[in-house]
Design brief:
5-stranded parallel β-sheet, alpha/beta, 284 residues, globular, 12 helices, Rossmann fold
Length: 284
């Protein structure tokens, strides 16, 4: 089946756009604990306090409003908190070099390599080594380690045939297709977008060009980048709450999806956004 956005033609008046990691697929927990956090602990030699360090990492990346933030932004905040707790000692000048690079906004591994070509900062090099190592560890995480959230499959079964269903994700296309196909979820999907296609904001904008009204598009996500993508396009947002994913999917299935279909989603949007915001922990 052709899932490409380029060839997609809408079949229904309404569409739900579903983020993958942390929304449909329980991938963020295992990635941040087994890969991101564990790599940080090993590289910064903090194994003697691994549980405490991992808890701080989880806070930044899973349970606070920064959930879903770019890894290098998360690393900057993690380094600050670790130094504040006396776990590490940062060279102020070197840390400023790293923060200045992050502030430029182009913060991928490729961008970091380019920066290191004219900057021999030890922290930049260490950040790169960390990022490469966590990518290596992610490759060992199987689809069995990343199941769909309870209630999600049943909700898609209910929605299928009543609206179009799109995956709007910043993951790479190969990973999305593998995870969703391994769990037999692609049969519910009409179109897939990924990091190769563009940002979530751009992909929702392109979905709107397929003939939907803004009030007929609902973005489902678990973090503020998803909120931003929906807000910038003027479409609805449905939150999957961290630590309450099954409840969120069940509520969508049995209550909020029908409100969306009936054109009554404005009745619940603010309540859902308040619930989303209040679900996050305060910054530690």
């Amino acid at each position: 089946m052709d899932y490409s956005l380029e060839n997609f033609v809408k079949k229904h008046d309404k569409v739900i756009c579903i983020d993958s990691d942390g929304t449909m697929i329980d991938a963020m927990n295992v990635k941040h604990r087994r890969c991101h956090g564990a790599s940080f602990i090993d590289l910064w030699q903090l194994n003697d306090k691994a549980d405490e360090v991992q808890k701080v990492w989880d806070g930044i990346n899973l349970f606070e409003k920064s959930r879903g933030v770019n890894r290098f932004i998360a690393l900057e905040e993690m380094l600050r908190r670790c130094e504040k707790r006396g776990w590490i000692k940062l060279d102020p000048d070197d840390f400023k070099v790293y923060c200045d690079w992050v502030a430029k906004g182009k913060i991928s591994n490729k961008d970091l390599v380019a920066e290191m070509e004219h900057n021999d900062s030890p922290l930049l090099k260490k950040a790169y080594d960390w990022s490469v190592e966590l990518n290596r560890r992610i490759e060992s995480v199987t689809s069995a380690d990343k199941p769909p959230y309870e209630g999600a499959r049943e909700a898609l079964e209910y929605a299928k045939g009543k609206c179009d269903i799109a995956i709007i994700s910043s993951s790479n296309m190969a990973a999305i297709v593998k995870e969703w196909s391994d769990h037999d979820l692609l049969k519910y999907v009409d179109v897939i977008t990924s990091q190769e296609i563009g940002s979530k904001n751009a992909c929702i904008a392109r979905m709107l060009t397929k003939g939907y009204g803004k009030e007929d598009v609902l973005m489902m996500g678990d973090a503020y980048p998803d909120v931003d993508a929906s807000a910038e396009n003027g479409v609805w947002y449905y939150p999957i709450l961290t630590r309450h994913e099954k409840e969120s999917w069940d509520d969508f299935h049995y209550k909020y999806f029908d409100l969306f279909l009936e054109g009554r989603y404005d009745e619940c949007q603010q309540e859902l956004m308040d619930r989303f915001e209040n679900n996050f922990d305060k910054n530690a």
